[in-house]
Description:
Layout: H1 18-22, H2 30-37, H3 60-71, H4 84-89, H5 101-106, E1 115-117, E2 123-125, H6 146-159, H7 168-179, H8 183-200, H9 206-229, H10 234-251, H11 258-277, H12 291-301, H13 308-321, H14 328-346, H15 348-365, H16 368-375, H17 380-395, H18 397-400, H19 420-426, H20 439-449
Antiparallel strand pairs: 1-2
Amino acid sequence: MDLGFANSRQSPGEHFDRTPFLRTPSDASSETLRSTQSPIDNSLTRTALPGRTLQPTFTAKDESSTKVEKWGRKGHTKSRAGCLNCKRARIKCKENRPSCDYCAHRGLECRWPEVHINQMGTMILRPTPPASVPLNPLVSGPVYTSQDFRLFHHFLQTAYPHHPIGNDSVWTHEVPAIASKYDFLLNAMLALSASDIYSLRTPCDKDLHLKALTYRVKSIESLSQAVSAGIESFEKGNAILATCYTLLFQSVLLNEALADYFTFVRGCVSVSIQVSIKKMNFIFTKFLGDEQLEMVEDGLQKAPWINPDVVAKANRSFEKMGPLCKTKAEITMYGLLLSMARNLITSSRSAYMELRKIYYIFSFEMKDEEFREFINPANEVCQLLQAHFVAMQLIMTPITKAEQRGRESAAAGEGDGTTGRWLKTLHSNIPAHLLEYYEWTLWVDDEVQKGRLYNGVYD
């Protein structure tokens, strides 16, 4: 195939110097050599001598020689098996291996097409060199491992929250469906799952605990950004709400996360209010107002009595610490805890209703400054109140089990007494002048470590 050299000296698309190429040994054809060695200038007209007939000036060979002298080389057919550099330069490749003459002369990397067609017409596929870049560089975002998929599966099977009550199918279907769009929700799910497995394993897997904390931090960081940006859609609002619930339940499995627990309870209420104000739908059902209470009513009617000795010790402890409470937040929380302890004497259901009031107070009614005062670790009285709050929840576990009745998860009824880990943190730095007020909570902590109280021994 003619490449166009016969029509012009240099095609418009060429960007290389052809002079060195015309001087390569491969272009020394016999016609070219004869042309360059001839001393006769055939362009001049010869003079006729006397008695002689003037002979024709040019022959066929002379014409060929003239053309060769004009173009410097003759055309060639296209090389189908040449290297890529020769194809790009539109020249015939010598096909030397590993580097052809053209590439070797210019110091170029001699590269060959993947498909080589030999003289017999057989097609040979050359092996593709290893890719130096990702096969799909446009794909961005986090990369999850096989362990992450196992954590995700564990969440769906066992670790998902049991609140809002009666929404197991939402946690195993609707929530996973939107998790892929919101990294704060997906990271929270993996964090809770990792913490749940870590709490059940013996010996403990430190790497798994670190992974749980890592995912928790990622989730909280992206959640803060999402909340700051506002709730623009029904789906995002529900994703934020589900994340708050998930991080709330992970806090139960972390020793130093009691303040986080209170904060996420408050967050769940705040997000629910925002979604309601914007008249958006919830993926969770029957979780506002008294609908949750209606679903546990039957279980509360059948709730066992708490051992009278345990209840008596609780009341004595509350009566002893009363004079320490001074601020509005301290007095309010103290009054509700004391009322809950006294109701345990007469009715387990009534004590549960007082517990609901406590959650209502610090999740909704408390002002921001009062809430910060309540969770402030430097506030010694509020730390004492928190210890009594945790101890009361532990002795009431046989009553609060009503919330998990009918749960579809394989973990129904498991995880009792896990909030006892918070007592260890609260007891780790008790001021000497307050030690006597922690006597009852220290006793509850000891009973929990022995496997008592929360397992129904004191029904």
